[in-house]
Amino acid sequence: MKMLKKIAAAIMAVAMATLMLTACGEDSTPSYRLQKIVEANQKASKIYADMTLVTGEEFSPNYVYAINGQNMYAKIQFTANRSMEVVVKDGKGYMKEAGQWVEAPNMGENLKQNSTAITPVAGNIVVAPEYKVEATGETMYAETIVSNGQEIAYCFNGDKLAYIVTTAEGQKITLKVNKWENSYDQAIQDKLDLKA
User: Fold this and answer.
1) Which phi and psi (to 5°) does residue 146 adopt?
2) pLDDT of residue 29
3) 22 confidence band (pLDDT: 50, 70, 90)
4) b/e per residue, 39-75, with b = 16+ CB within 10 A?
5) Which among 4, 49, 22 has a CA at the least distance from the CA of 115?
6) What is the tens place of the pLDDT at every residue in 157-194?
7) Counting Cβ atoms within 10 Å, is residue 132 exposed (0-12), middle (13-18) or buried (19+)?
8) Beta strands at 126-133 and 138-147: parallel, antiparallel or unpaired
9) Cα separation of 6 and 179, whole Å?
10) What does DSSP say about strands 150-157 and 138-147: parallel, antiparallel, or unpaired?
11) 99 to each of 8, 84, 102, 180, 196, how far by Cα in Å?
């Protein structure tokens, strides 16, 4: 459970890193695929991401994130019967317990620490035309950034983001990107507003 929470924190950091790539200046050249994601983030200031941890096990944890500015909703499905929902709103963390949102200060603080340290800019993008995704054996076009001393690889299938590869607690983790959009429905907004 502790390792899964560390992985969840790493994934939050990846999501925030991608959103915080908006720190790129107006004069950065949009020649990279990751830069197109950055520009969409800048325009919408929202991200909705649904990702699955690649494990090779019968059940792989699933992560859903919705980010609006500095506010974030996350649902982590650890097993078929066990999940956790977290909201970070106005710098404070909340966890859903027995159908109610309960303040969880460490969640907000952990996310703030991860997100403030992660401020890559477009100039840090390195192209890896034949990046090996070890967890799947696939070789893909990737663009990597180094954030807080850690490499994050964004692997693409054409122009579509397919995998994100990073590390958590010294272990390489691979996330299959099921969906990545710059909008989400009202039900997600209600969660971000601690209403649902």
Assistant:
1) -110, 120
2) 43
3) very low
4) bbbeeeebbbbbbbbbeeeeeebbbbbbbbebbbbbb
5) 22
6) 998 999 999 887 788 889 999 998 888 999 999 999 99
7) middle
8) antiparallel
9) 22
10) antiparallel
11) 21, 11, 9, 27, 9
What is the tens place of the pLDDT at every residue in 69-126?
A: 888 888 989 888 999 998 988 888 899 998 899 998 777 565 544 443 333 345 578 8
Write out the chain in H/E/C secondary structure.
Answer: CHHHHHHHHHHHHHHHHHHHHHHCCCCCCCCCHHHHHHHHHHHHCEEEEEEEECCCCCCCCEEEEEEECCEEEEEEEEECCEEEEEEEECCEEEEEECCEEEECHHHHHHHHHHHHHCCCCHHHCEEEEEEEECCCCEEEEEEEEEECCEEEEEEEECCEEEEEEEEECCEEEEEEEEEEECCCCHHHHHHHCCCC
What does the alpha-carbon distance between residue 190 and residue 187 come to, in Å, rounded to a whole number? 5
Q: Which of 23, 3, 29 has the alpha carbon at shortest distance from 147?
A: 23
Tell me, what amino acid is at 9?
A: A
- What distance in Å separates the CA atoms of residue 1 and residue 186, rounded to the nearest whole number? 30
